[in-house]
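Run: sequence + iron/sulfur cluster -> complex structure.
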Amino acid sequence: MSTNKEISTQINKLKKEKDAVLLVHNYQVSEIQQVADFIGDSLELSRKAQNIDAKMIIFCGVDFMAETASILNPGKKVIIPNPAAKCPMAAQLSLKTLLKAKEQNPNVPVVLYVNTLAESKAECDVTFTSANAIQIIQKLNEKKIIFGPDWNLGYYVKKHIPDIEIIPVPAHGFCNTHRLFKNGDEAMELKKKYPEADLIVHPECEPGFQDRADYVLSTGRMYRHCKESPKKIFIIGTEIGMIDRMRREIPGKTFIPANPNAECPTMKRITLKNTYEALLNEGPIVKVPEEIRLKAIKPIERMLQMSK
Ligand code: 13P
Ligand code: SF4
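>> structure
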């Protein structure tokens, strides 16, 4: 059985031989982050995927992220090391629910979180991520929007843009992992212990937790905040992979998980071993049917354009 070090050496060798780029989400395990060509949040990864100069993209993240990379790169092989890495929140919005909401609300723009499947994106006007939700929706300047699937992100949007009417699809979508923080009682105990710390949470957390936080940020913005802040201690309310990255890349600062059990099980279905096998076998390939791709690319490109 090879060690992680040996597998990582093989991955780095194969990447060069095959002209492949490894895109890795912030929630991936540390050993995968360390062989990445680029680590980031959903927005940063979509931006990167738009400008890749390589034959092959190995996407270490969940299904909707790899689909987005594939939609933006029809001419390239986009590979996900384990197709079972599916975001359960993205699956909460069925095409049927979305089409029904559209039918009941004609002429109301559909604004969807990137955490959705390609077939839903194909039916929307613009996508957003947790990093640009406010920016995109403010720029749209609409009174009413069909919005989904994460209701906690809906709360976050409504807090910043109080006059907007949100029609949620589904009625109450959520992320299982971010739900684990509940209203943040554990984090508040940590805050008592470390009053000088910044409490930073992801907008997929429950409203009660968001309201108690010092900052509500996407994973990419969390990273930048912690790097640039003069503060030394941070209590982090998101998936624990984010903390691995910050501990490794931001020396001299302390990162405390608001809940050390907040792990996204589907993100963790990508392993160093299946990443190596994916590179070796050049599969499993992520392919979106062309008819859906041509429709889904429009709201993604619009988002990238609007959040420049
Ligand atoms: P970010 O875009 O902030 O990385 O979030 C993606 C995600 O799936 C959070 O659960
Ligand atoms: Fe999906 Fe939540 Fe996992 Fe993010 S953390 S990929 S939203 S299940």
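>> summary
The mean pLDDT is 97. The domain at 89-176+292-306 is CATH 3.40.50.10800 (Rossmann fold).
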